[in-house]
Hints:
With 497 residues, this protein is mainly beta. The chain folds into four domains: 26-181; 188-297, Sandwich (Immunoglobulin-like); 300-409, Immunoglobulin-like (Sandwich); 414-497, no CATH class. It is built from three helices and 30 strands. It has helices at 420-425, 447-452, 471-480, and strands spanning 26-36, 41-50, 53-58, 66-70, 81-84, 90-97, 102-110, 115-116, 120-121, 128-135, 142-148, 150-158, 164-172, 176-181, 188-190, 196-198, 207-216, 225-231, 239-246, 255-263, 271-277, 292-297, 302-311, 318-327, 337-342, 349-354, 363-371, 379-386, 401-407, 492-493. The strands form eight sheets. Strands 5, 6, 7, 8 and 9 form a five-stranded antiparallel beta sheet that branches. It has a four-stranded antiparallel beta sheet with strand order 1-2-3-4, with no helix packed on it. Strands 15, 16, 17 and 20 form a four-stranded antiparallel beta sheet that branches. A hairpin with a 5-residue loop joins strand 12 (150-158) and strand 13. It starts with 25 loop residues before the first strand and ends with a strand.
Amino acid sequence: MCRALRAPRPAGGVLIKAPSGDGKADSNAALTRGCNPTIRQGVLRLVWLRGGSLMDAPLGDITKPGTFYASEYSTNLADFQLAAAADGRLAVVWAEPGEFSSDLKAIFYDPQGDVWGEPRPLTADAETEKYLTAAFPPDGPVVLYNRTPVTQVMQPVRTLSGRTASLAVPQDGLTDLYMTRHAVTSGIAVKAGSLDTFPTNPKPGDAAQIQAVIANTGDTALSNVVVWAYLDDPQQGGALIAATTLTAPLAPWAEQSVKLAWTVPATEVPLTLFLVVDPEQSLADTSRSDNVLSLTTVLPDLVVSNSRWEWLGTGEQVASVVARVVNQGALPGGAGTLSVHTGAADGPVLATLPVGSLAVGQAVDLATTWDVSALPGPTYPLFLAVDEAGAVAEQDESDNLSTLAVGTLAEDTDKDGMPNAWERDHGLDPLDPGDAALDADGDSLGNLREFRLGADPRKGDTDGVWCAGCPGCLAARSKRAGGHGWRRDRQQRGPGR
């Protein structure tokens, strides 16, 4: 509690004479009693608007004001109300406009930490709140305001083309006087969804970081916030692996990132991390249900890295479809399947292919065929989903689906197996059947072969798979694989296979 106000009466005259230097006007000053946290004595405190920013300074030292909130969008900030509690706490309250209405927001000042917080909502409804006044009794701020219901009325309007359309127009109802009382709270949490590691999904032996965001969910500044990290559930005997303390005051409704060093231990199974804020429950907290977050990491990650198709013969309408599945995770992946759907991700299943268990970094090519002779269009989509049933616990399920457009036979005047449009796009002659065997880029793949692989006949090895006889590919293959080749005739891919 602050002692009685003992500040001398300020001299009259111009309060802020020197311009701020940024071309913004200083206006809408509000003056109230604040608290000096060092001497615990009341002081006059000034809050005002500079452009779109709320400024704050003790009345006796306004040469170095602080900005505690800046808004480029709020048009109602000039109507803010400043309220002070007997213990030196302050609240700035205003009506924040929305699309068709407005809601009350507040920022709290805590004298113990000498910090202003972040904006927090006091109301969240479809009505419009404005013309407010506020006070700060011991049990929390009280705000009186006008509250007007807003409804949407459809009205006919004439467009520029002369047509009549309906437009939703907001219409105000009857205004009433409302009061809201806000109870000052105290709370700390690990922000939902913020727990992660760097690198994401680290491997055993990696030097990693455990990262999260700690959020002050109350109206009181909190200091010396303790954060502990565990391997496995601490309620079930999990081991403490890292700790840190936020010594600086965490302002009301503010957030702060934390990073804790962690060396990933040797393991053959995924690991579960638990991050706990205020583990010894030394801080006042209205709810402890959000003090803990968990994350399972060091996981396999199956990915459909690429897919391709080719016709099985000139003039035929049976396509060979090949999809490559790679384990890009941190641990070997369990046995899963690749589901091939036609038309849509949940369309008919063309094939279900076993993937098998893949070591870290291992890839496998899975193939099936598709007769497209009855299809009406020039192309038809395939959806390739690995581990669709969720049999393998993975790091990221979002990369388990890939799409592939298989083309039906288009117009082919010279009957060389390459559609006219494709030949024109790649500088070939739709009337010359002899260009099917040519190899302009020198990668040992003829133009027809390049078309069937979905490659570019003007660029060497654009199919993404090493060709057998191309000197350029042989040199690149030797360099990238450490002198060990990659063979096309093996489904299981890896150095020396």
